[in-house]
Amino acid sequence: MRYNIHSIFLTISVVLFSLGGQAQSCDSIVLNNQTAINNFIKNYGNCTTVRDLTITNSDNDITQLDSLYTIERITGTLLFTNQIQGREINIGAFKGLKYLNNISSYYPLRFTGQFLALDTINELGIDNTFYTYPNIKHIGNSLSISDVSGTHITEEDTPVFTTGENFALSISNVDTTTLKVLSNRIMTAHLKRLRVGSGIIKRIDLSYLPILDSLETLTLDSYENSDLRQISTIRKLKVLEINNDGGGNDYGQGLIHIRELDRLWLSDGKPLRPFAYRDYKKILPNLEALNKQLFVVWTDSLFNLDFLDNVRPPLASTPPDPTNFYSNDLIVLIENRFLNYCKSLFMCKAIKQYPDRIHIDKNYASRCTLEDIAKYCETVSTDDKHIKSLTISPNPTYGIVQLSATETPVHIRIYNIQGTIVKTLYNCTAQIDIADLPSGLYVFDIAYNGRTEKHKIVKMD
């Protein structure tokens, strides 16, 4: 059961798309009391499809929903509101309901009965098991599972279902068996968004959820002492959110395949132990670019921005995001108690491009201010043309090539003439061995110091 607060339509309107006794598609319907429910068939008997159905117990007299058995599809929300908290609702009355977008309530409700005919739902939230939804065959958009009573889902009691291609999973306080069952149901290619934690902090082991390869958004929220090493398999991540890391978490190799992110969001949300420190470089060891936004707020574990060394800041061409409170800001650093050092090439490049799209405020260590950073940036160059380019020799080569003019390790992706990546090398310093590649022309895509270069190399036998 998922509890969301939705605005209520108090206007009842019925739009008929067919005549006579044939099935009809209806707009939003609000049932205020038991009498309205009893008269449903009389007033809306042909409405087999309803957009939104709101049951609001205005007279506090609703005891049963049996007259709603004719409804087959609810394309919007089945919303319960103005109910007595904890009241039981027998949803078995929806005997004909086959399709539901989502179900919501103002207050926690205890459901009795089952949606026996329901086989498709777009947004599903359950507290422990699939008991209420025993015959689900497809979950379109999202599944949220939170274990609050200690009763877990099992392989035997969980229906076999498919999911939509852009699927979101939220897991909170679940056990390893639950993760195994979900891994057997959700296709790796379909899982694009994952939220771990949220609410009560409890250990979780992602090694039992080996379907993370295609994730595009990862949110880690309220978690501690967890095994997160499985994140090293993620290859397509665009958004990373880290909120309320309680400590003791094992990130393993971190997000080793992630070179670019669209958005990075960091927030502790509450004071950590005094002077707690988190090494974000271990979580993002190979990050080279942030394309759209950096958001760091209320993060007690951040003392400086060293983890952004050699990372390219958000692009000036990024349009404002109307879904974000700081819609025009590309870099937001606010109320980070111990953030004392913001001087970095990352910030200098950003200030040079868009000083009016950087929001820095109330970082209590006081040295992290826009003015302080700007003064520092006057002493350094952010112009790439003043940075000496790499040289690679010999070219052609029989297998060994030498790097020069770099004091930091470089990351290299090697493409063949067809544009296929044939080799990836990390943390190279002086020498590269490509003796195992067949003869031909290759393109070396080299990333270092927050910039990239391409070099054509001929391999000979």
Textual characterization of the structure:
A hairpin with a 5-residue loop joins strand 22 (about 410-415) and strand 23 (about 420-430). Residues about 1-20 have low confidence and may be disordered. This protein has helices at about 35-40, 40-45, 175-185, 280-285, 345-355, 370-375; strands at about 25, 30, 45-50, 55, 75-80, 90, 100-105, 110, 120-125, 140-145, 160-165, 165-170, 190-195, 215-225, 240-245, 260-265, 290-295, 330-335, 360, 390-395, 400-405, 410-415, 420-430, 430-435, 440-450, 450-460. The protein has a 17-stranded parallel β-sheet that branches. Strands 23-22-25-26 form a four-stranded antiparallel β-sheet, with no helix packed on it. A three-stranded antiparallel β-sheet has the order 20-21-24, with no helix packed on it. Helix content is about 10%, strand content about 30%. It contains six helices and 26 strands. With about 450 residues, it is mainly beta.
